[in-house]
Each structure stands twice: as structure tokens, then as C-alpha cells.
Amino acid sequence: MYEAKKFESIKELNGISERTMTEHYKLYESYVKKFNEIDEKLQKVDLESANPTFSDVRALKVELSFALNGIKNHEIYFEHLGGEGGKPSGKLLAQIEKDFGSFEAWQKDLKATGMGGRGWAWLAWDWKMERLFNFIGDTQNTYPVWNCTPLVALDVYEHAYFIDFGIMRRDYIDKFFENLDWSVIEKHFVELGV
């Protein structure tokens, strides 16, 4: 059974209201609840009925990935919010500058990625090419690219910003950058051992 984590970022942030963060966290909790429900149903499903056109196995497996990725995406998102923005330092900043030309170029690219995405934008480490990329993920269960580790998760579904920003996604993304906790992101990057 999966249990919802608690996050210090579920509070009033710089330009993002406590209501938005609280409602957003409730959505995360609903993914946890739904994942557990689907996982329990999968323990009882008739595996012999599996069929690519339609079967309970297929339906449950597809929705399990949606719920589980909804959990994981939001855990990355909530964990690295609540900081003071700015820039990273050390190895992460050096890698961003190497792969994007400058921190500002990376930020501009992630903002464009977020504006172009329907659900998520990520900064991720690609293990095969050994570099950072910004990726779009349109739904919870479409990851950017296989063999990548996400480091920054920018939720651009309307639920992440509509209460505070209406349709002004660009303004929300600016506030997202201002609330990043780079120490969390740098820690995860260092843990990769690249």
C-alpha cells in the first residue's frame, strides 16, 4: 500500500496561495488513493482475460500507470518547491551551462517547454547521452524519454495555477522559478553520480 508523503511546500508560497497548494495536494492524495484501489483490483483480476482491444487487465494497467506517475510527478514537484528561487550552484549549474549555454537559456527553454506542454515539463538527466534535457509530458503516464531521471518537475496542468493566475500560465511559471529550492535539486543531481 502506497502512503501519501507530507511536504513543507504545502503552504503560502511566494505568489502561489496556500489554497492552491492545499487543493493541489488533495489531488496528489487522490492519486495515492486511486493507485491503492487499482493495485488491489489487479490482485483479483482474471489474467487470462487480457486483450489489447479491451480487457480489465489492460484498463487497470493503463490507469495504474496514470495514478502512479501522478504520485511520482507530484512528489518531485512538491519536494523542490518552497525555496527562494535564484540559481543552482556547483556541478548542477556547471552542467546546465554546458548543456544549455547559460542558466538563463535553460530557464527560457524550460518556460517554453512548459508553455508547449499540456501537463508537465521536466528537466531530466539523459543517461545515454549524458546530458540534461527539458522534456514535455502531456499526461501523467507519458514520461519524457526512457532512461532519463527527472530533476525538476513543472506541473502545467491548469489545477497547478488556475486559482491564482487564471489563464496566465506564463506568470505562474515565473513564480514557479521563484519558489524552487535548488538545494533539493542539487542533492538529487549529486546522488546521480554523474
Automatic annotation (TrEMBL):
Reported EC number(s) for this entry are 1.15.1.1
Give the family this protein belongs to, as stated in its UniProt record.
Belongs to the iron/manganese superoxide dismutase family.
List the SUPFAM superfamilies hit by this protein, alphabetically. Answer: Fe,Mn superoxide dismutase (SOD), C-terminal domain (SSF54719), Fe,Mn superoxide dismutase (SOD), N-terminal domain (SSF46609)
According to UniProt, the name of this protein is: Superoxide dismutase
Q: Name one GO molecular function term.
A: metal ion binding
Q: Where is the Manganese/iron superoxide dismutase N-terminal domain?
A: 16-81
Q: Where does Mn(2+) bind?
A: 24, 74, 155, 159
Alphabetical UniProt keywords: Metal-binding, Oxidoreductase
Q: Which residues form a coiled coil?
A: none
Q: What does this protein do?
A: Destroys radicals which are normally produced within the cells and which are toxic to biological systems.
